[in-house]
Amino acid sequence: MTKQELVKKEKYLKLNDDGDYAIDYDGELEIIDFHTHISNALPLKIIDPNKKGRKLEYPTLPSVDKTDLSVPYWTKLDPNEKNKGLMSVIKFSLNGYKIFNDMVKGGTYDNCFKSQSENMIKKNVVLALSTKKSDRSMEALRVANEHPDKLVAFCSVHPHDPEMKEKIKKYKELGAKGLKLKVTDMELKGDFKPLIDLLKACYEVNFNVLLHTGSLTHIKRRNTSDLMWKLLKSTRVEVFGELLKELPKDFKFVFGHSGIAEYKLVAEYLKKHPGSYAELSCQSADSIKYLIDEVGYERLIFGSDWPALPQALTLSRVLLATENNKVAREHILCKNAERLLR
Ligand SMILES: [Zn+2]
């Protein structure tokens, strides 16, 4: 199948002049994208977001022959996939590096604003992504400062940062609306105290916290090595969901990607923790419908993970899932995010 053939079959999708997915919708929509990135607020080298003519690679998007939009992650799964031996660990790490590299290259203002206008998106929440060694929060704040009508900034502070508390207060004062983190249990060496302290510091300044949550669950234990298994499980939903027990009930925690393949578990945590939300990037129309049925529409938020993924794909999934529910659509696309960002 070609991309052309795919969009012909899919309601709400078309291709733009670059051959990338764009939304196909006649009416008006109000949309905030709660999960995006930009060149200079990512790890690796800093690239000036003013650069022009950079190609968008969408590094997390599967090729057309491997695309299956009916499942989260939109990728045809092979239940017998094998990830044994050192090579698979190396491949996994190189792939992670390539994803960031492509995001840094493609995540420029030029590409960002083009995608916003093609997809009727009024604002992107730009999530900084910091590591222990490199804090990208000031860069995210800078881009939001340069384009306050189009971008909102989340800071990112690593739990092992010695100035964690001071920084969170400072970034709040500088205009950050929340904090984003991608961290693994391996990186924390199983000691969650620093992360809990960080979440509590965020609660004190009334920050929303969005964490990358979820992993691919189709790979079987017997088909992996010990190390690969640990890597695959290192961001699973329960690692972070269990920490919510340590925090007040009204703590505003957002499950990034709705846990990818673990969206049903995310629904269970949302039921237990009334302050928590699920952000929908890479989910399918069916999984979004499932979440609406289980937890209602007032704690689900549209996010795309642009430029790792096109904004149009998750957006078209939300439109499909809410075809007969205009109120749910308005909340998921905009109202819930607006409430959190107020
Ligand atoms: Zn992301």
UniProtKB/TrEMBL annotation:
Amidohydrolase-related domain mapped to chain residues: 120-342
Gene Ontology molecular function terms on file: carboxy-lyase activity; hydrolase activity
Entry keywords, A to Z: Hydrolase, Lyase
InterPro entries named in the record: ACMSD, Amidohydro-rel, Metal_Hydrolase
PANTHER family: 2-AMINO-3-CARBOXYLMUCONATE-6-SEMIALDEHYDE DECARBOXYLASE
Protein name: Amidohydrolase family protein
Organism: Alkaliphilus pronyensis
Lineage, broadest ranks: Bacteria, Bacillati, Bacillota, Clostridia, Peptostreptococcales
